Structure formats: C-alpha cells, structure tokens
Amino acid sequence: MGGNAFKDLNVVSIERHLFEEISVSLIRDVRKILKSEYVKVLPYYKNKKVFGDIDIMITREDLDFFERKNGCSFFDHLTDKYNLSSVRNDNDNIISIPLKIAGKNEYVQVDFMPHEKSEFTKKMKFYAFNDFHLFVNKFIAEPVFDGHVSYDGFKTKSYIDDDGKNYFLGEIQTIDKFDETLSFLKFDIERFKKGFDDVEDIFMYVYSNPYFSTDNFEKAVQVQNNVERERLKRKGYVSFINFIRSMPHKKGKIVGSESGDIVNHFSQLRSQRDKLVDDFYTIKTFKERFNGININKIVKIEDSKVLGVFIKSLGFDHRKLKVDDFVLSIVAMNDREFENFVFKEYSDFKESPVQSFKKSKKYHKVI
To answer: Is a pLDDT exceeding 90 seen at residue 207?
Structure first.
C-alpha cells in the first residue's frame, strides 16, 4: 500500500477514471481466474482524484486452491497471462505487482492483500481509508484506554501492583467486533459506513471524537523512534498532523468521568483479568523456587555458564515463560520433591549431556 514498491520501473499515480477502469477490469478477471467473489478493492474516498496504487483484498484459501488445481501460483499465472513485469514485491503479507498501462510505458502498482476467508469482511472494514486505524490507535485508543484497535475488535492492557511495583499482565479482549469497537470509542458507526469524501473528511471524523485530545496528540507525535520516523515519510500521516495543528485546541473526554462506561465494559471481563492475575502469581512462585541460586544450592556447580546450560537443558527459557505443565509441576512440589527433581535431572544431564554442550570448553567441569 502506498505505491512505492518498484523503484526501477516507471510506476505512476493514476487519475480516478483510469483507476476505476483498471479496477473493474482487474476485479472481473481475478474473480474469474480464482472462481471466487472474495475479490474486492478496498474502500476509498468518494472525491479522491489521484491514486498511487490499487489495493485488492483476496483470500488465502482461494490462492491455495488455485495452486493445488493448476500446479502454479496465482501470481505466476497472472504474470504469464497478462504479460506483466516478472518483478514482484512481497512485503508484510502484501504481494505487489506492476501492471503496465495500455499504450504507455508506465505502470501502476497493484497490491494484493491475502487474508483468511473468515476475516475477509472484518479486514475490509479495518483497512478501509488509509491510516484511519493508525489515527484511532495512536491518538485515542492507546493514550485514553491503554488499548489497541484491530480488525477483530478492541484489546486493553491489564496491570497489577505488587510490592510497590507495577507489572504488565497482558491484554484482555474487551470487544470482539470492529463495529462495536467504533461505537464504544464514541464514533458514529453509521457515518463510517457511509464512507468519506476526502482525507480531511476523515481527519475531522477523528478530531471530532469526544475522546480526542490535542494534548494527547502532541505527546504522541513527540515520541521519537524508528517507527515514528518511518511514519513521517507517509504523506497521509504528515497531512493529518498538519490538519490537527491547524484546528483549535481541544480537550478530550476523561474515561469514566460521565457514565463510567469503561468500568461497565471491564466488569464483564473479570474472569479474563482473574486468569491473568492467577498466572502472574503462579509465575512469581515458580521464579522464587526455580532460579539459579536455589538450583546451585542443590547441585553446587561452580561455573555460572555451566549452570546456565544445565537449566536450559531442562527446557526452561525465561524469555518465553508461561504457565504450562512444567511450571505447574514445579509450583506443586514441596522442598524435598524439588531437591529430588533437581538431583535426578542433574545426574541424567551429566551422563547424557546435550550435543552442543559436549563441544563446550566447560564440559569437563561437569563430568
């Protein structure tokens, strides 16, 4: 999406009449080839005059079926059938091809976006109107609710205070539908369904949201990192920043200040949070028992690197720690059972060390 995938070809932006002419023809042909109605151009602004590319959503199931039946990929078939440039760009699940414009030495970029058939309609809504979901997340969902909007609804982050420290527990699926998410965030869903005339129309739609705050906006755009620097290269994102800064300063609604709406939603999700809390304390108990200090008191390994290899041999990875059978079994042990477990595993480890450890210079210190 964006029309910048092919630097070495004469890829151009096209006017609306040509965009619609190519789109109608391409959609008809692709539906015929894939034998599927799940082929659609993403919604765009009613008054948009120039297009940098053509965004088409298709399904992975249709691509897989075509390949099984024909013995070649859909995109190879398309390249051969229409004598397209063999150049192709596959980036972040978007397959871009340069389509030659009839009678000209120019190309238009076509972006195919394959998704699961069950998610097709939801993602058509989510990706409609470039950058809308970015504006909603960055300037409303994240600063106001500490949440995130996606095609399958709304997730909020959950935290816990333990011993004076604040810990991130995980995300809770607050709402499971995109339309309901927009309504929860106080957007006019019927207005969204009608579409927008131009980019300023959708900019105003975001700015007019009761939760949108100029102060939150300025804090968000001041953050300097690689992601933000890449966003600043996008014309639509920069235009939104300039638009907001041209508007009067606006205070946003504070969550719960009027109706306690966020609390009402969260009260229905108590079981999800309770599970996150239970997992947090289970992991905490596990770490208090299963750690290098305690294990070394039992097996007395002098070299810390050797100790690390032994702990890893048990299948433990602190970077991917989650409540599973191994964690639950350690938590359920009493002190004597834990000592016996460590002794047995260490004995097996010395007799049958992992191959990578056999090559280690520290190997002799274990034997």
So the answer is: yes
